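Hello,

Following up on my earlier ticket. Below are the two sequence lines again, exactly as submitted.
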Amino acid sequence: MRQLDAIFSPQSVAVVGASTTPGKVGHDIFVNILQGDYRGTLYPVNPRARSVRSVRAYPSISELPEPVDLAIIVLPPKLALSAVEEAAEKGIKGIVIVSAGFREIGGDGRKIEDEIVAKCRQAGIRMIGPNCLGVINPNPSVRLNASFSTHMPAFGHISFISQSGALCTAVLDFAAEREFGFSKFVSIGNKADVDELELLLFLHQDPETNVIMVYLEEISRGPEFIKTAKHITSGHRPTPIVVVKSGRTIAGQRAAASHTGSLAGSDAIYEAFFQQTGIIRADSIEDLFNYAAAFSYKKIPAGNRVGIITNAGGPGIVATDMTISSGLELAKFSQETVEALTSHLPPTANVLNPVDVIGDAPEDRYENALRSVISDEGVDGAIVILTPQSMTNALGTAEVIARIAINTQKPILCCFMGVVDVSAGVNHLQEHGLPVFRFPEQAAQAFGKLYHYSRWMNRQSLDQFKLIHDKDRASKIIQRALAQGRPSMSELEGEQVLQCYGFKVLQSMLARTKEEAGEFAESIKAPVALKIVSPQILHKSDVGGVVLNIDDGKTAAQEFEAIVQRGLEHVPNAEIDGVLVQKMAEREGQEVILGMNRYPIYGPLLMFGLGGIFVEIFRDVVFRVAPIGRNEAHRMISSIKGIKILQGYRGKPPLDVETLERSLVSLSAMVMDHPEIHELDINPLMVYEKGKDAVVGDCRIILKAPEEQ
Amino acid sequence: MRQLDAIFSPQSVAVVGASTTPGKVGHDIFVNILQGDYRGTLYPVNPRARSVRSVRAYPSISELPEPVDLAIIVLPPKLALSAVEEAAEKGIKGIVIVSAGFREIGGDGRKIEDEIVAKCRQAGIRMIGPNCLGVINPNPSVRLNASFSTHMPAFGHISFISQSGALCTAVLDFAAEREFGFSKFVSIGNKADVDELELLLFLHQDPETNVIMVYLEEISRGPEFIKTAKHITSGHRPTPIVVVKSGRTIAGQRAAASHTGSLAGSDAIYEAFFQQTGIIRADSIEDLFNYAAAFSYKKIPAGNRVGIITNAGGPGIVATDMTISSGLELAKFSQETVEALTSHLPPTANVLNPVDVIGDAPEDRYENALRSVISDEGVDGAIVILTPQSMTNALGTAEVIARIAINTQKPILCCFMGVVDVSAGVNHLQEHGLPVFRFPEQAAQAFGKLYHYSRWMNRQSLDQFKLIHDKDRASKIIQRALAQGRPSMSELEGEQVLQCYGFKVLQSMLARTKEEAGEFAESIKAPVALKIVSPQILHKSDVGGVVLNIDDGKTAAQEFEAIVQRGLEHVPNAEIDGVLVQKMAEREGQEVILGMNRYPIYGPLLMFGLGGIFVEIFRDVVFRVAPIGRNEAHRMISSIKGIKILQGYRGKPPLDVETLERSLVSLSAMVMDHPEIHELDINPLMVYEKGKDAVVGDCRIILKAPEEQ
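Thanks for your patience. The regenerated structure is below:
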């Protein structure tokens, strides 16, 4: 038996803290399990009651007549700790602690929570919570409703993991209204032991779960998350994951921090996580439902060509708009399909996509239209819209749709508009597992997510680069800087480290005197740039420490003095190591930026974008968490809007995108090899025509000794 | 009595084509009026029935015992025409033609529709339809349900105009579920006589309408629409208008065209219409409901600072995210408010925004929190979130919210999550006119729209420019080109026309020989550009017809020959008028593009954006329909993302935005003065530092004689 089975499918359950007072959590949870018709044996534990709701109570866990699989603990922190200790002695395998007052209030609460986790780990007990709503398993052979909610949801194939307990009740309530069926339902609370990642793995192995919905505030483990979630969504027997992640905005992150006591990372990190793992992101709780309904149906389109069938023009147009906006296309029907539609539909019908079967369409007209459309090889799936009109037979139409759906692997998403008039049809579709939406936009958006997932599962796989890096040399340079107590490396050092990872740099020499500056400028034989070098001066331009386009040695020597003087004016005590004399980059290139910031829990976040205004005004940047390989680098670069500029814009030749891919992979290797690199910017990296490589224009590396991190 | 009152509030109604057969439209509409408890007198007209549903029938309109206000006609086109003729003779004031088969099928249908309209106009009858669902007025003193729908909606203060009949039924169905109240409900169908604009005006004057929702496929009258809708949304007694406009995508426009037989304009035009009229655009039918609910409440926030009160962390975070994404801010509470919250709430509560009153909050905790928050001067409105938890009293909480809401002008938007558990509270809020949403995102989004509307009503008003234009001279230049049968003006002519409207142009001379080219280049005394001039060559660069940066007369003379030769190679029969020798624009400027396209029905669409990649890759452009004044020009320029570049970016000086405003106003005047200008591009207009003006770099003007338009 898998460890979490003791929690989700226990043979016996004890509610520790079961109360006789209605309204108290310890009473309500006990009643919800009891009245939910739990298929195992249920024990109330209460030292002061002989029975709870007619069920014989036991004064303590140790006095239970047999070992139980699961203990639901509803007790204040200190008593909860004692109960866990007792449970360990009794041989209990799973625990759910519902009560609050632990890590989220800090101080003693946090301490007790840590002790409980230690005790569970020692005893081999798995624990959900504390500070959670509980768990629900509506499977007819289990029927465990160990939650605050009086509603046991219907059994189905969607599992839900929620980091917000309060949200769970509302979600169950909506689910009841829409007859949503669940496989497993779990509120993770403080996730002191079992966290979202472990649950994702458990649900991935659950044959009853077709799709996992998650409400997430923050993840607990960054690097493992990527590896595991990617495997779940695209490995053997892939399971789609749909997530609402709150804290998209800075204000939202602050609200989350004050709520859970943990600092959620910036949204860019989460966006990277989701991109890298194929997780579908929903923008709202309502979308979460809609997407889960579509995925639960288990039919993923092979392509993005959608056929729309409707009995009303307006909703057809609305669906068309959202189809296009969701990255899909309106299918072009074959001649054969058009002929079939023409022969079956009245003359006023529209036989092109969207097919309008006209307001008075009976079910057979839908049947003929859908059969023709779905069997067209140029169609990857269909959206069927029904509005209640005078001749509409919602149930009959639902029946023909369900019959056709059985015989095709192409997804058919339905939109039956209205509530009262169409409910018999909606129920029939749901009973047959077909996703049905209230508004045409929702069906089209959900289809867009199915297609997105299809592309993720069938994503391109390029050969990896064979890269040779000089990790040792880079380590030495880094260690030297750290040994000298310098948190930021000089540009020259930074470039040396980058060179160890295959980056090309501009020829440059450190001049310590004006004479050297002149000499070096002559020897480099080209327009050069002069840049001040001082550990105290990080932003060279701001102190007038950079002069570009110097053509001769004499000017270089003069500028050397001027630069040093300006540097000292701005930072009087700066130690000036000298002035870097650097060959100017060739102009024809395009500036791009590569960057990295290292975050606790999450890891190193890589950044890529075009330089200057593209980043600063249009925010056209993309993030990924290292390590990444070539395919992730390729997707990163392809996903910026400015990709057209890299591909050769307005007759300009395409740029060396392969080199950019290699650069990102090398950068990833570099930050993985050297955890001391805390922050890094290559700004700009000048990239040239295809085959002509790229060169580092400037770089900035901030170090942090591992012990400071 | 206003003309449309005969349609919406008739004293007596005849259903012409009333049928005795259930399921037929002529039967169902009659029954819906009858069973809807219509307060006037209802007559069925049917030549073959003695009575319809026990009501005495009359064989024809002329035999009705009295003149009636409104005739609902449910007859095929030819019979409908006869009925209209009879109605005119009988003195009927209003007609609704429900039947289809008119303009939308073309041919005879269109002809009959035109005849009906002519007859109505002649007789002073106002007509809704044909091809529509009907009209509904739920006011208790009228109770007219002249529609296909068996549901008479509740009476309320939202009016709905729909261009899709089928959508109406679904909307009524949803409305019933959410207890949405309507003032007037009308399906406009082919809008052969009464169109959306007239209805907007009528509903604006209707004291029972607080907000107008519209489902729109295309508008009938462009220029009047802007003037009228702007007056409705921001003149005396402003009425907010919320619109779903389908056909956002090209595919959607095509679907709309095949549906209604009319060509909907590109979405850019509609976006311009909505921006210029203060119409709130909803992205989906569901949003339409949500926004209308918020506006129906009639409280518009003075600013964008929102206070959030919640009994659950997760939904509070979700609301915070959407608050920020919707252009709002989280209010910063005053010291006094924080102290009041601290004194009223338990120690674990969060007294900063979002206020977390904790899961076990009874109604008085909500009351204290909301009272403190809403009276804070730094708060412009509140979002109150309730999730059903163990101690939650949804009704009690709704009561305290409603009590507080009466005494404040600040909007309070509620989100009661869940369906079953909170319904008593939701009902109470709705009865008191308070907007209540199902998900926190919806409340925050709706608040964003309220604020958007507040900004529209309080928009800035700059003094208009005093511009003097030489309209006559421009006319002469245009007429000369038209007289010569040339659809496109030469660059030189275009610049002359632009100069008549105050645009600065680069010094330029038309060289007819290589010698002249050399001479002119010397006389202009600066780097010049050479550009081929030929009526057959529109895209000069594509044929190698442009050479830039020529520094001396000799090179200019050589290039003259090369340009002419290349031109003739590409367009063998081109008549070459010569080569324009033009002073190069100064480099320091920023390129912007001004453009215009003239559309039938809609008018001249002005375009503004930054040049090159900004337009082509980032689509950072904005549109308005001429005529525009300075304020609209100002809003246009401010609304592009690249505005930061114009305001002075990275230490660069701010550019001459006032000149850009003036240029747009002048361009607007120019295209209004000269309807022969069909298309126009000024690309680039080089704009310089503030106070240093702008200069036309190149322009292209396409003419069309008015008779061709």
